[in-house]
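Exercise 7. Predict the joint structure of the components listed below.
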Amino acid sequence: MSDAGLNRIDGVYVGNMLSGCLQRQENLGTMMANAIGLTGVSVAKVESACASGGVALHVGVNAIASGANDLVMVAGVEKMTSQPNPNVTAGLMGAEDQMTVAGSGISFVGLNAMIAQAYMDKFSVPPEKIARFPVVCHKHALNSPHAQFKKSVTVDDVLNSPMVADPIRLYECSGIGDGAAAVILASEEKAREITDSPILVAASAVANDTQSLHQRSDMTTFDASVTSSRKAYERAKVSAEDIDVLEVHDAFSILGVMALEDLGFVEKGKGTTLLEDGQIEVGGMIPTNTFGGLKARGHPVGATGVYQIVEVAKQLRGEAGRNQVAGAETGYAQNIGGIGSTITGHILARMD
Amino acid sequence: LQNASIDGYRCQQCDWRGLSLTRICPKCRSTRISPGKFKGSGRIVAFTKIRYPPADFQGKEPYTVVLAELDEGIRLMARLDGHHPNARIGDRIEVWNTETDSRKITALARVIGA
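Solution:
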């Protein structure tokens, strides 16, 4: 709010997944509004598993677009370190069906491990090719002030890290962590009044799929990723070639690879070819996760989708520091909830 | 386990089959959904070894969870019962539900052949 020079807004929408489960705290909309001294405004907690942040933004955008609100704060918050890891692992499984899936004992890493297994098998991609994804994220995080893991790792480090759920290893997983991020939304006219560097939300799209992995015949693509991106491109009247900076939901490295394909940057099964010669690094064809992504910036689940928006906005405003993508005008953020069951696509653009 | 079976649902119009109750068929949009019982014989489509389990499964790790495809066409997640160090994709398995309320699935499986 200080960045926007504001001290009053009329809507507060908070993305969060696990506060009820881990802290027994709900009603976060009014809690956050109170924390900035507000009563009498529109509030809500928005929950869509790990896409809570992205869906909260979608709700905020619609509140502005409909005229229901004039000035909105969309925040994403999550505190995951207050409970032992098995409780967090069980809480994250809340994104899957408790009646038919959770009883198998599978974890979210395990679900993604099945995807990784199917992907590597179908496209004959070895683990060392996928292992380049977290290497790039860690490299970007070295210059990211708010990153959780500011250290560089090598492909060998990734391949030698402990197995978590075969074939996924520790350094292919985002960590458990706490975090919060927020953005202010306003109509175009209002935005120009309150800031010299407004960023346009050119598209806000959501698509869902079946809640469970076992309900799908093809595990190597997320239909909701394809659908949300095509909706977003159509609404913003752009295509993948127009995107200058990209944030993808690499909760596990395989998801980063699949995102590059599903969002249209490379043919299906060829995602790892973009990792071979720096094409997803700053200076490459499609700079991706320039603040470290979920792997290295961190993945406080309900906050992640809003972190991504803040990061894309920083790039478009030329405020990304040493990882600035020169001349970035259009950015895309993909936020995934559940096992590809709720996916958001946001396109941001400079307004000058 | 001759009578191992899994309860689910099927569409009377297009024969879609699934594990979770839906009021409208996701395939043909018919509302003629009825309960179905499916034989527990099938094969492994995918598997993973869980080394860091959710809270309710602490102490059981490591264990293997398989994505099973039953011969009658539905898929579900099931935990391998007992020691199956060499489970692979395509192995024949037998799957059964350990819940007394059959609308909730807590499935176990065992490998019965390659």
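Discussion. The beta strands of chain A are 11-15, 42-46, 71-78, 163-165, 168-169, 179-186, 199-208, 245-247, 330-337, 342-350.
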